Amino acid sequence: MVDDFQHDGHGHAAQNAAILLRVAQTMAKLGVAAFPRNYELFYEALSGRNPALTRDVAALGSYPVQSRIEEIGVKFHLSGFAPIATDVIRTEAARTISAVNQRLNNNIARTEGFAALLRQFIARLETDPVAGMSDFSADAGRMRDAVAAFEREERAFAVSMNETVAELGGIASDIEAMRKTSTRDATTGLANRVAFSARLAALYDDGSAAGPAALALVKVEGLRDLCESHGAAIAEKALKKLAPVFRKSVKKNDFVARIGADEFAFIFHDVSTDNAEAIAQRIRACVEAVQITLPNRTFTSKTLSLSAGIAMTPIASGSADLITQAELALHAVRVGGNRGVLVFSAAIGSRATKTYTRHVA
Q1: What confidence tier does 268 reach under pLDDT thresholds 50, 70, 90?
Q2: Interval 21-75: pLDDT, tens
Q3: How far is it between the farthest Cα atoms of the chain?
């Protein structure tokens, strides 16, 4: 997938166009259908970030069938192929469950047949006490053979059930991988906008705040300039350095998500206004301590900073109001080149103009 910086940065428009042109030219040369998910797959292949994916795409050759392209997209859990992956998982699950049902039915039938044979043998012993030794020997031989066959079938059934358990485990793994693809940012491994929207909505129960919490909308200052000056790869490297910093900066039950190219959202639970502001200031200091080494410049590095707008659940009427207040606080702290952390207040709300447009949500 084309990097977010290339989607929404003015300075990167030319580079974005060049990358898209290269992808389009490659797809046209190979006769690949111009589906959005195919663009995602070929961008990932041409980026070289996943050598295994690149090798699989290279092995497609000219004029590959779409089903083979989709197999690769599903295999590497690309987000554009998630609907196809869902259908594959559904089909595999139905097939596996049907097979289990058939095996169980067959096993029940075998067990019932063996039980019937055993009952017949017991009845013969009980009702015909004068049966000859040769007759008894013949019945015992048939019973011995039946027991041996039953044991073989039971062993085979146990093997098949173990294989089924493994298949179901694989399906569960695929479902989990697909879930992560749909709710995780590919670059940082943090939650994405989809997961953030769900978590934000959960802050309010029946229209009222479920508990004291704070939403901090954060913009990483300098990240876009870093991308435009040194390329998307350096910006991606910086993001991967920031991700663990953000994870370590919040409590276990708090939440952090990447919701834009250089924008993140934090949810702090059980905090006061002062607590939330102090946490945001601490995160800002941690970001400023991160050193980003520039390509071919071993002794040269760049630093970043952040601006944050904070809104508190007790004074917001709902999730939409909460995010609007955080946006206004973030906008206010960045006006005129200012940087830092600002908590929403009535004064900030009263200064909001009609020309203000949301840049986060």
Answers
A1: very high
A2: 888 889 999 999 888 888 888 888 887 767 888 899 999 999 999 989 988 988 8
A3: 111
Phi, psi of 209 (to 5 degrees): -65, 130
Per-residue CA distances from 127 to 130, 140, 146 (Å): 9, 16, 21
With beta carbons less than 8 A apart as the criterion, state whether 330 and 307 touch.
Answer: yes
What long-range pairs does 91-98 form, CB within 8 A, spacing at least 24?
92/167, 92/171, 92/174, 93/168, 93/171, 96/164, 96/167, 96/168, 96/171
Q: Does residue 215 or residue 346 have the better pLDDT?
A: 215
Backbone angles phi, psi at 187, to 5 degrees: -75, -45
Q: Assess contact for 222 and 307: CB atoms under 8 A.
A: no
CA distance 31 to 61: 9
CATH fold label, 193-351? Alpha-Beta Plaits (3.30.70)
Determine whether 151 is exposed, middle or buried from the number of CB atoms within 10 Å of its CB (0-12, 13-18, 19+): exposed
Q: Residue 46: CB partners within 8 Å, gap ≥ 6?
A: 19, 22, 23, 26, 54
- Every domain of the chain and the residues it spans: 4-76, 83-183, 193-351
257/193 Cα distance (integer angstroms): 7
Dihedral angle of Cα 44, 46, 50, 53, to the nearest 10 degrees: 80
CA 83, CA 344: separation in Å to the nearest integer? 40
User: What's the CA gap between 29 and 357, in Å, rounded?
Assistant: 42
Residue 282, helix vs strand vs coil: helix
DSSP per-residue codes, 57-88: HHTT-SS--HHHHHHHHHHTT-GGGHHHHHHH
What's the pTM?
0.57
Nearest CA to 85 out of 98, 95, 70, 100 is that of 70
How do 341-343 and 305-312 pair as beta strands? parallel
* Residue whose token pair is 């949810």: 267
